């Protein structure tokens, strides 16, 4: 009972609300609320301050959180190691990725070699995937962010040049190369703030002192693809992320070697676990 109550406390502390914590734990909101009340009543403490619909950690809750975090991580590690078998004829592997472009071939090879392992793939932004990795909710994660953290093993799995993506009827599609200065006459489609592709695109434009005629913010690769197909503008993308379509063209930048990297991460302490180690071995490891 105590472990369940502490897990509810940890989830609420990380999520900020009972609703989100219950969704993460896969239980009802009354269950989480009841466990928190039982924990506080049993020991006569106050773990949270109620502020509207949100919860703020009390001083006692702040002191307890690091201890519970270690407990949750140890429980996850024990469960994973118990499920892990050296021959990988069973078990599971949870993969997190910012997109399917750089990881699908590795997933295919892994599935073919270890068909008894249940593999799941979660898609989200880089911050969410790295947070899930640290919380032991996934085993490996891909991200375009280069993170220098002694707790993380990192290997480069792709290096991709940035190209201009345009509809084949767009004026820029008349040439084989596009100069950044040409973007000043057109509408540029950018990802949401925090996107590595957006950061790379904006850095190129600032360095070249180019201001597009208009900028539209669009929140996903798929939506940008549709926007380009509908003639709303052009975008900058890693070439491997450009979907195959007869009306889409990926045009190299003239005189610029702009590249983006994709990284594969796991926690260093979990790297020896067979299910993880063999996945890393099957993934590209570029210098």
TrEMBL record:
SUPFAM superfamilies: Periplasmic binding protein-like II, Winged helix' DNA-binding domain
Alphabetized Pfam families for the sequence: HTH_1, LysR_substrate
Keyword annotations: DNA-binding, Transcription, Transcription regulation
GO molecular function: DNA-binding transcription factor activity; transcription cis-regulatory region binding
CDD domains for this protein: PBP2_LTTR_substrate
Bilayer-crossing regions: none
Boundaries of every HTH lysR-type domain copy: 1-58
InterPro entries: LysR_HTH_N, LysR_subst-bd, Tscrpt_reg_LysR, WH-like_DNA-bd_sf, WH_DNA-bd_sf
UniProt similarity note: Belongs to the LysR transcriptional regulatory family.
UniProt protein name: LysR family transcriptional regulator
Organism whose genome encodes this protein: Verticiella sediminum
Phylogenetic lineage: Bacteria, Pseudomonadati, Pseudomonadota, Betaproteobacteria, Burkholderiales
């Amino acid at each position: 009972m105590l472990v369940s109550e502490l897990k509810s406390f940890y989830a609420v502390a990380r999520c900020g609300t009972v609703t989100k914590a219950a969704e993460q734990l896969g239980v009802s909101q009354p269950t989480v609320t009841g466990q928190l009340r039982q924990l506080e009543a049993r020991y006569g403490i106050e773990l949270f301050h109620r502020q509207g619909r949100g919860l703020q950690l009390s001083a006692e809750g702040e002191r307890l959180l690091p201890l519970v975090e270690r407990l949750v991580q140890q429980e996850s590690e024990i469960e994973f190691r118990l499920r892990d078998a050296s021959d990988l004829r069973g078990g599971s592997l949870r993969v997190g990725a910012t997109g399917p472009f750089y990881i699908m071939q590795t997933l295919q090879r892994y599935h073919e070699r270890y068909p008894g392992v249940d593999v799941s793939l979660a898609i989200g932004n880089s911050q969410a995937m790295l947070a899930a990795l640290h919380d032991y909710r996934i085993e490996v994660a891909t991200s375009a962010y280069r993170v220098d953290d002694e707790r993380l093993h990192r290997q480069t799995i792709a290096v991709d040049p940035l190209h201009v993506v345009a509809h084949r009827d767009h004026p820029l599609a008349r040439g084989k190369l596009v100069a950044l200065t040409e973007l000043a006459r057109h509408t540029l489609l950018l990802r949401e703030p925090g996107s590595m592709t957006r950061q790379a695109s904006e850095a190129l434009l600032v360095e070249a002192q180019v201001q597009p005629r208009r900028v539209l913010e669009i929140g996903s690769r798929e939506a940008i693809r549709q926007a380009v197909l509908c003639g709303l503008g052009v975008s900058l993308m890693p070439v491997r992320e450009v979907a195959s379509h007869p009306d889409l063209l990926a045009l190299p930048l003239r005189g610029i070697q702009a590249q983006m990297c994709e990284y594969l991460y796991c926690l260093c302490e979990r790297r020896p676990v067979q299910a993880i180690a063999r996945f890393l071995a099957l993934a590209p490891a570029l210098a």
